[in-house]
Amino acid sequence: MTAYVALLRAVNVGGRQLKMADLKRIAEELKLGSPKTFIASGNLLFTSNRSETALKSALEKAVGDHWGVTVDVLIRTAAEMAEVMNANPFGDEPGNHVAVIFLDEPPPTDALDAAKGVADERMALGAREIYVHYPNGMGRSKLRLPAAASGTARNMNTVAKLAELAKEMA
After folding, report:
1. In the chain, where does DSSP find H-type helix?
2. How far apart are CA 48 and CA 159, in angstroms?
3. pTM score > 0.85 for this model?
4. CB-based contacts of 83, cutoff 8 Å, min separation 6
5. In the predicted model, is pLDDT for residue 131 greater than 80?
């Protein structure tokens, strides 16, 4: 059994509301082991023997059927979440000022060159992530990263907690 974290994109923002109890019930209906959610932003932890691809497909379809809208789901194993946390190039900065943008594929090597609206943000590429340090907070930033359009962001405090919870399930 592998412990996984599913990160749903654009949940509970802009009027799109998905109750975490519904997300947990969907996971139970999909026969995912020990499902639990963490904060109301679309974070699901569970165990399964299925592949990342199969889990992504099943969760996207089930959540989409329930919610009536297409939802992108990004999947990481417990080990991958720990790697994301440990690879943080901005580890000396407060966790609420560092975001990880999770992607399905490795970011293009020129992804940062295409960034628009850069002020004082610092960026770095990860394995299947883009790390961004927002010195003045995400809310004030005008940064736009075309390579991140299909991804979903979590701040480093959330990533650390998800990595810890996933490790406990592993």
Report:
1. 20-29, 52-67, 78-86, 156-169
2. 20
3. yes
4. 127
5. yes
Beta strands in 40-159 (DSSP E): 43-48, 73-77, 98-102, 122-125, 129-133, 152-155
Structure confidence by residue, pLDDT tens digits, 42-51: 899 999 999 9
CA–CA distance, 137 with 14 (Å, rounded to integer): 19
Query: Whole-angstrom distance between the N-terminal and C-terminal Cα of the chain?
Result: 8
Provide the token pair at 143. 């940064």
CB-based burial label for 141 (10 Å; 0-12, 13-18, 19+) = middle
Sign of CA dihedral 57, 124, 117, 153: positive
Residues 6+ apart with CB under 8 A from 163: 78, 81, 82, 84, 85
pLDDT confidence band for 29 (50 / 70 / 90):
very high
Q: What burial class does residue 115 get, using C-beta atoms within 10 Å of its C-beta: 0-12 exposed, 13-18 middle, 19+ buried?
A: middle
DSSP state of 146: G
pLDDT above 80 (res 10): no
Query: Alpha-carbon torsion 153, 18, 57, 82, what sign?
Result: positive
Question: With contact defined as beta carbons under 8 Å apart, do 37 and 28 qualify?
Answer: no
